[in-house]
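User: Could you walk me through two proteins back to back? I'd like the raw sequence and the structure tokens for each, with a short line separating them so I can tell where one ends and the next begins.

Assistant: Of course. Protein one, sequence then structure:
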Amino acid sequence: MGVQQAADALGLLEGPIHAELLINEQGIWFLEVAARSIGGYCSRSLRFTNGKEQISLEEIILRRALEMETNSFQRESKASGVMMIPIPRAGVFTDVRGLDQARSVGGIEQLTISAHLAQELVPLPEGALYLGFIFARAATPKGVELALRASHACLEFVIRPQERKAVDQSDEIESARMEARE
């Protein structure tokens, strides 16, 4: 089943559609199909212009909802994309290396690390965050994909294992002992 078929099955016929898929060796997996726009940083990957002004995806959506003119605005002709940098393993984020090299890859427009140093990281599906975002533009979608993958390959995230905290159970143990004596 493709995204269009999933949207049709949900009755999503007009307005923004947000779809997230995981693509790996085992196949294509739907994570989300919803009646909403892409959010946060990701919407920055799309630009619309009428030759005089440039507006955001959110403004296009609001103009359509308010029945304002949108037909003169076209998405830019270059392909664009964003990679939500996945968290490779659980632990505490201590450093990222290779940022300058990753930013210098052809086609990369922006690379933002949104995780904070000393932040505890939990990978998907248990976690809900990304390490950051990489934005690219190129003449073709394949060019965008290659730029995003090349930039990501330059990055090395230092994540130390989360230290297990010893739980002080002395009160619980003493309480259990007292109950056993009674």
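----
Protein two, same layout:
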Amino acid sequence: MMIELHEDEFKYIKKIFSEDNEHYPLVKSIISHNIDGKVFVDNFERCESVFLANKLGWVYFLGNEKNEKFNANVEQVLKSNYLKNCEHIIWFGISDYWKERVKERLNKNLLDFPRIQYIFKLEKYQSVKKTNSSYQILEIAEENIEKSIEFDGSITNFWRTKEEFLRKGFGYIVLDGGKVVSQSISASIEDGEVEIDVMTDMKYRRKGLARLLSMYLIEKSLEKGLLPKWDCSISNKPSKMLAEKLGFESKQEYPVSLIEMKE
């Protein structure tokens, strides 16, 4: 059995979150409607299995995966119109059971991209030396948000609308000659935590811009009483090095698979 929840019912699945799954990137943004997504459960009253999917093709399975009727319906969602235009699906926290099932029953190829969850250590961050830059640094606002979106689509990917981001989120950009060359944004703000997303133009890397803008974002988060979050692929060495420089400590690794959907 599978039930698709209405948006005003999404909040009821919070009880199935645990330390093992609540850290998945953007999963809570679906529940709070900051990103478009769908939520499916096995039973509304006694929910044990939950499947979530967002507009980016990111999916999550929470709870009991031994429910065969529900699992059969998950397969149908993966093949549904909602996800059919995705070149690939990214499954956060995918289990070995689901890896094998996707390969055998959906006949799809999977690529593994395990990630690391970090935790923020304030005392370590406070010892980080602040740096200056000759570039212009601005907080993202109504007058420059279009430049930010043109540089990198993260705001419109991670937030339902740019207006929603301006109301609830925050971020910073570096300009060179009026052009955005680096940015950091709050990818999500949920339950007192801020997911950090950073991007720098290839030509401007190794100049300390990502570090500088990350510190701007961390400072803003702390001012607002929010806890910064960092999460990245194990293979992303620059991101791992930056996280450690900013006072984050590795907490745990977890599985992520990319499912190639196009024939």
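The domain at 3-116 is CATH 3.40.630 (Aminopeptidase).

Let me know if you want the two compared in more detail.
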